[in-house]
Specification:
The complex is a heterodimer of chains A (311) and B (276).
Chain A: E1 5-7, E2 10-12, E3 16-18, E4 40-46, E5 59-62, E6 65-68, H1 76-90, E7 95-99, H2 104-116, E8 122-126, H3 137-140, H4 143-154, E9 161-164, H5 172-181, E10 187-189, E11 193-195, E12 198-199, E13 204-205, E14 212-215, H6 220-231, E15 238-241, H7 247-256, E16 260-263, H8 265-269, H9 273-287
Helix pairs in contact in A: 2-4, 4-5, 5-6, 6-7, 7-9
Chain B: E1 3-14, E2 19-25, H1 27-31, E3 38-42, E4 53-56, E5 60-62, E6 68-76, H2 80-86, E7 93-100, E8 112-118, H3 125-135, E9 139-145, H4 154-159, E10 163-168, E11 175-176, H5 179-189, E12 195-200, H6 203-215, E13 220-223, E14 239-242, E15 251-254, E16 261-263
Parallel strand pairs in B: 8-9, 8-12, 9-10, 10-11, 12-13
Antiparallel strand pairs in B: 1-2, 1-7, 2-6, 3-4, 3-7, 5-6, 13-16, 14-15
Helix pairs in contact in B: 5-6
């Protein structure tokens, strides 16, 4: 059974990627998870410099989901290359680095440094974080901002580029098209939904940042719909994510058009979820007599009446 | 190295209308657990609650031959997950990920150890008291609660040769008032014993203990309870503001990896998140 998929020039062993921001720098899990058995490890977002992030509380559980406002705390690209990348290489992990920037120049500089480092498989451009004031979602909320970041980074690296899109827009497919036209090798979606929770006793937000990003099973149907819309708008591969908890959820995204998927919140609930998801995928492929998982991608069956968004 | 397993419930003893203690069969988890470490617990396979919650390892359970068999959790019913844990039945399976985090550093004689617990904060001190006894370190426990109904395991600590100082806010057992008042008085009267202080309980209590320890120049370790997402260092939710020295800049470090036990003097208490 062939579980491999391709994201641009990058071959993944299987479609399962640990989602950025949900898996530290990967090394935190190396005792419990054989990183080489994952399709990829998307490490925590990196700016040029170290970054402190928001004060706690940074997380609150909500129905079938959670809000986070970590604020992209991170060690910066230089420390990542020196301290984390060697161990990830030793673990034979397929490393996807989530790149952040307060300016377009910063995205380009971080990406250039990563392009010169050994052991980076792809760059995921974080133009969608809802929890930072400068950069993040401000670029990803417009086609122009998306195009500008992708073009600037395209000039400085040959690594596969995967802009990570925000769902906090009216037309995510339009953003995906802008990314494709600017030279992206794939798009990943969705980042978290901007959201809020309030403590009614104190009448204060439950997060120190006031607002945060909603993830978990609560958002999955919206994310699936957005992957479906983008699949019909772009030719490049889509990395789908949003509340995946089971192999059935993985398949739902792939049938909607995702070539690979990322798993985030579920990893908090079950850090040993990966072999279970793989076993579920293989069981499905066997039962449906499909030899290659890539043959599942975009196989959504639509009636004419349901095909509204392809017209 | 942590393990992820579905631990079998061996017993569930209701200590009161709100507190219970669950004994779990988990030899591999217990085998490498240290006092003050924690376990991420998932009391249901469903989505409510979705995330695991951290619990201190209470007792480390051993068989007649001294081999580890499991551990216990002291639970206080406050929300959805803790209500599920209050109601677990024998032979039910509970998702447990652990042992996790940096626990207490037990001191050796001639040092002495003073433990200060508030309410459910007693949990990590049973295993610490056992470790101290094995080392021959004289130990004392300052234990406070709202009333006598909130104080548990007194016989167990006595059997471990721990000297008890009890305090209740309603005066129903021990001294009337806050446990920190008892601690302050003992620190004033017995400067010569020079104890290392360990604290676990409500944040205001731990902060008061930290201040008392600092004013008497005593080392103090506090077991904090930051809200956690994963317990593995993956999410950066549970950060705690710390500084290496009084004048050093504060940094946010992960409570699940660098803690939950911290040097009390390194914690920046003003920036600590309130526990909801």
């Amino acid at each position: 059974m062939d579980l491999s998929v391709d994201i641009g020039s990058l071959r993944l062993r299987n479609p399962l990627i640990a989602a950025s921001g949900c898996f530290g720098y990967g090394v935190e899990y190396a005792d419990m998870v054989d990183l080489a058995t994952l399709g990829g490890v998307a490490v925590k977002g990196l700016f040029l410099a170290e970054r402190e992030g928001h004060d706690p509380p940074r997380i609150v559980e909500t129905p079938a989901g959670m809000l986070n406002a970590v604020g992209l705390q991170g060690i910066g690209v230089h420390r990542f290359v020196d301290e984390k990348l060697p161990e990830l290489r030793a673990q034979n992990a397929t490393v996807i680095v989530n790149v952040c920037g307060s300016t377009i120049d910063e995205y380009a500089e971080v990406s250039r440094i990563l392009g010169d480092a050994e052991g980076v498989g792809a760059i995921e451009l974080n133009i969608s974080c809802p929890n930072v004031k400068a950069g993040g979602m401000t670029f990803g909320c417009s086609a122009t901002g998306t195009r500008d970041v992708v073009r600037a980074v395209r000039h400085v690296t040959t690594l596969p580029l995967i802009p990570k899109l925000t769902p906090n827009v009216t037309d995510i497919a339009g953003i995906a098209v802008a990314a494709e036209e600017a030279g992206a090798d794939a798009v990943s979606l969705v980042n978290t939904f901007l959201a809020m929770a309030i403590d009614v006793e104190t009448r204060r937000p439950k997060l120190s940042n006031g607002v945060g990003g909603l993830s978990g099973p609560a958002i999955r149907p919206i994310a699936v719909r957005m992957v479906h819309e983008c699949r019909q708008a772009v030719r490049i591969p889509i990395v789908g994510m949003g509340g995946i908890m089971t192999a059935t959820d993985v398949l739902e995204f792939m049938i909607a058009g995702a070539t690979a998927v990322q798993v985030g919140t579920a990893n908090f609930v079950d850090p040993t979820i990966w072999p279970k998801l793989l076993a579920g995928l293989e069981e499905y492929l066997g039962r449906h007599d499909v030899a290659r998982v890539r043959d599942v991608i975009g196989t959504l069956e639509l009636t004419e009446a349901q095909g509204w968004s392809s017209s | 190295m942590p393990v992820d397993l579905d631990a079998r419930v061996v017993s569930n003893v209701r200590l009161s209308a709100d507190y219970n203690v669950v004994h779990l069969e988990a030899p591999s988890l217990a085998a490498n657990a240290e006092p003050g470490q924690f376990v991420m617990v998932k009391p249901t396979a469903g989505l409510r609650p979705l995330l695991r919650r951290p619990f201190s390892i209470c007792e480390l359970l051993i068989d007649a031959g001294g081999a580890p068999t499991g551990f216990s959790l002291l639970n206080k019913r406050v929300g959805v997950g803790t209500t599920l844990l209050y109601g677990v039945e024998i032979d039910q399976r509970i998702g447990c990920l652990g042992p996790l985090g940096a626990g207490f550093a037990a001191v050796d004689p001639p040092e002495t150890a003073w433990m200060v617990a508030g309410g459910v904060g007693i949990a990590p001190f049973l295993s610490l008291a056992s470790a101290l006894r094995r080392r021959g370190t004289p130990a004392m426990l300052f234990y406070g609660g709202r009333s006598a109904d909130d104080l548990f395991y007194l016989d167990a600590f006595t059997r471990l040769d721990v000297r008890l100082v009890l305090a209740t806010e309603d005066g129903s057992q021990g001294e009337a008032g806050l446990v920190t008042a008892s601690l302050a008085r003992e620190l004033e009267s017995t400067e010569a014993t020079r104890p290392t202080i360990y604290a676990c309980g409500p944040t205001p209590m731990m902060r008061a203990v930290a201040d008392l320890a600092a004013s008497h120049a005593r080392p103090c370790q506090v077991s904090l309870e930051p809200v956690m997402g994963c317990g593995m260092g993956g999410c950066y939710s549970c950060v705690v503001p710390t500084r290496a020295t009084r004048d050093a800049p504060a940094h946010l470090v992960r409570g699940c990896i660098d803690g939950p036990v911290f040097d009390a003097q390194q914690v920046v208490w003003d920036r600590l998140a309130p526990v909801v």
